[in-house]
Amino acid sequence: MKFTLNLIAFIFIKLLFSQENELKLSIDITSDEKVESVVFENLRGNIFYSLKDKTSINFQNKLIEEYFFTIKTKDSLYEEMIWLDQGEFDISISLKSKSLKIDVVGSEIFDKTVEYENGYKNLTLSNATDEEVNKFLFKELNKNIENPFSFKIGINILFKNQSNREVLSQLMSIIDSQPESVKSHYTSGLMIKTLKSRLNSGNINLADFTFLDQNNQNNKILIENNEYILLDFWHTACPPCLKDHIEIKNLTDAFKAKKTKIVSLSSDQAGRIEIWKKYLKSKNLPWENYLEIEINSLTDSLEIRIFPTYILLDRQNNVVAYTNSLSDIKTKLEIKY
């Protein structure tokens, strides 16, 4: 039986008596499941409202930013994020066949984000070259240069081109040219910090770092008679990391043939050290495995926040590849698979 819930939420934002910051939302929800609650909140967590049994909401906020809609039904929980600017908008939320879709009429930033997401998705599903994808990303970045959504696009450029200093320098130049009002947005901090870290990571001096082995002994990483060192940044609560370990193990001989030494660096915290040891013992991984134990660890110094991350170094500790994809490393080393 079709269940339709109509909620009208009027949200007024007033800042220093400026009408430009007024936000008024009219929300219509259509669902084929019985909706128990609807929550509207922002990414920072300082705006949180349950729309159940409410017809109006009032709060103050001056930022263009991301908002969450969380819809709870009897059997499921659905979440969707949207970007909103200031204005008067009609929001249609459709929950049908376990699929949540949100549409906003009248929001310029919402339209831009949808256009971007659809274009990027189509490119990633096609056989587009890196050059074609980067061309699209920079075009969208420049279209959004005066709003904070640009930092989400910047993150995509950053993680797609972690080893391409020319592209990263181009990205940094564009970010530097943004208005201060945009650069001061709370979404900018991590992206800019990570970007600067990538640009400064042309050479990694492994001698500056100490790692803990399975016998609780301190160790340094040595390149020995190898041409390359592949650093695998991971942790035991990362399913993609564990999946990649299976493939790396199957390719052990191929890496040896390319004179590449594999070193896995776990960022597991104190409460998971025994889990880390048990995992290594059960999987019998035939390469060096260490735990990062220092406050200023290599993971922290490189601002690594996404796992797995792979860094390929040459004999002089120069970064040859920096990526979140094992396939990129195999391509770089010309390992057949």
UniProtKB/TrEMBL annotation:
- Which part of the chain is the Thioredoxin domain? 200-337
Protein name according to UniProt: Redoxin family protein
Per the UniProt record, one Pfam family is Thioredoxin_8
Q: Please report the organism this UniProt entry assigns to the protein.
A: Bizionia algoritergicola
